[in-house]
Amino acid sequence: MEWAWIDALREAVSGERARGVKLVTRDLCASHGTHPDFPHLPAAFVVEGAAQLAGLLVGEATGFARNVVLAKVARARFHRLALPGDGLDFAVAIAASSDEGALCRARVTVGDELLAEIELVLDVPRELRDPCNRPVGVVVFGPHNAAIRDDFVRLCEVARAV
Amino acid sequence: MPPPTSDVFDTVRSVLVETLGVEPEAVTPGAVLKDDLGAESIDFLHIVFELEHVFSIKIPREELFPESVLNNPRLRKGGPIPSDLLAELKRTMPYADHAVLDADPRVERLSSLFTVGAVVRYVAGKLPAATS
Amino acid sequence: MSLELLDAIDDVSPERIVARLGLSANAPFLADHFPGLPVLPGVLVLEAFVQAAGWLAHHRRGFARSIVALREARHLRFGRFVSPGDQVTLTAVWTGDRGETLGFDATAEVRGQRVASAKLELAYYDLSARQPELAQVDARTQAHNRERWDRLIARPSPSLPA
Question: Residue B89 gets which letter from DSSP?
């Protein structure tokens, strides 16, 4: 998958929080960075990881029946760079939500070190339209991310069973 | 513990500074969220979430920023606001700033309802009876 | 290979840079984002902002330092979607320095309609400031930055010889 910025899930509690990981490979730094002599993953992709995990969390709360779109990055503060070999741990929680959207807070760590703190506002639009102004259905969740969605649901069940 | 009424303005101001990226000096009681502070649709949602969190209140959909009233199909761009809708706005949003619309009841002026003062009055009204 | 998001620089002055980014239908991330509604991921607008503001930082500081990295993004709001065939105009305006951190306001538009806007703080530094053994990496990175800039800013004539 080309645009996967979370590699695997570690925890999911429906409607509350989730954890996932993204491994920073040398190859990823080369293809997505612009400093070949000092490879690192640009911060924007860490924001995307947080957004994707938050999107799964908010989406699952709707039964994956609604589109969930990143509408605003209220704040994304970076404390260090993501280097090849780093394992990024994402912890995302829903701070507030309604049927219109959600406010999510994420912490991204590498081992014990804080890499980023990110606050996102996700929109859950009633309708999404294409450039020709035709309504589209649920496009954010589909066969392309079925595997990770299934995994999210499984982890939620594990959390409930405890 | 919700803050006493006299601090509501300060807290609302800090929420608006945080959510709208404006300077504290710009957040005056008469400042219109959209026209003066640059608030957009997503910011109104963000503001609701932050107010709920900071004041420990629940803001039901349509109560603070009632979209269905504002998007009423009878409100035509460039036209006047029908007097019955004006009355409904007053009834459903007693906390809002109606002065501008009273003088100039055009659809373009609807945003003037939502001032910093309107938010402060709404929040103060939602807080349990506080010591002043 | 690297992620050069900016297609051209239209204007640069000490306070402001204007650049162009085009979304082509065969961009690799479109297959996943989203099937049935191919649109530019918002975080790539953020990365384009960082790249544009980064060039303005280099322009202001005479390429004196090698690394440009995002320290903080605030109030990053997304407007309309960007679809294949859209040409995005990106503008970054310098808003002041705080030591090694440079501030910028950035906006992106398509045909006069707002796509995104944000406030950015970029760190601008040399690796060797804290790690003297990395002076060579700084030197190579600086040379690479200048080359990339020269390529971006050059305006070879498209006309064929008579």
Answer: H
* DSSP 3-state of B64: coil
CATH number where C88 lies: 3.10.129.10
Residue pair C137/A37 in contact (Cβ under 8 Å)? The answer is: yes
Residue B131 has pLDDT above 60, yes or no: no
Rg value, chain B, Cα: 15
CA distance B21 to chain C (A): 6
Domains with residue ranges and CATH for chain B: 5-126 (1.10.1200.10)
Residue B130 pLDDT greater than 80, yes or no? no
- Taking residues B111-119, report their average pLDDT: 93
- CA distance, residue A69 to nearest chain B CA (Å): 11
Contact A155, A12 (CB under 8 A): yes
Which of C4, C29, C81 has its CB closest to that of A3? C29
Q: Looking at residues B22-30, what average pLDDT do you find? A: 95
Which of chain C's residues have a Cβ under 8 Å away from the Cβ of B42?
Answer: 77-78
Q: Kindly indicate the confidence band of residue B86, based on its pLDDT and cuts at 50, 70 and 90.
A: confident
Q: Indicate the residue of C43, C76, C140 with minimum beta-carbon distance to A72.
A: C76
Determine, yes or no, domain membership for A1. Answer: no
Query: How far apart are the C-alpha atoms of B27 and B45, rounded to whole Å?
Result: 18
Using the predicted structure, report yes or no on whether residue B2 has a pLDDT greater than 50.
no
pLDDT tens string C61-116: 999 999 999 999 999 999 999 999 999 999 999 999 988 899 999 999 999 999 99
Instruction: Indicate the residue of C2, C29, C72 with minimum beta-carbon distance to A36.
Output: C2
User: Does residue C55 lie in a domain region?
Assistant: yes
Distance from CA of A53 to the nearest CA of C (A): 14
- Say if A149 falls within a structural domain: yes
Is A70 in the B-facing interface, judged by CB distances under 8 Å? no
Helix, coil or strand: residue B119? helix
Total domains in chain C come to 1
- The residue of chain C nearest to residue B43, with distances taken between CA atoms, is C77
Contact B96, B114 (CB under 8 A): yes
Please list every residue in chain B whose beta carbon sits closer than 8 Å to the beta carbon of residue A74.
18-19, 46
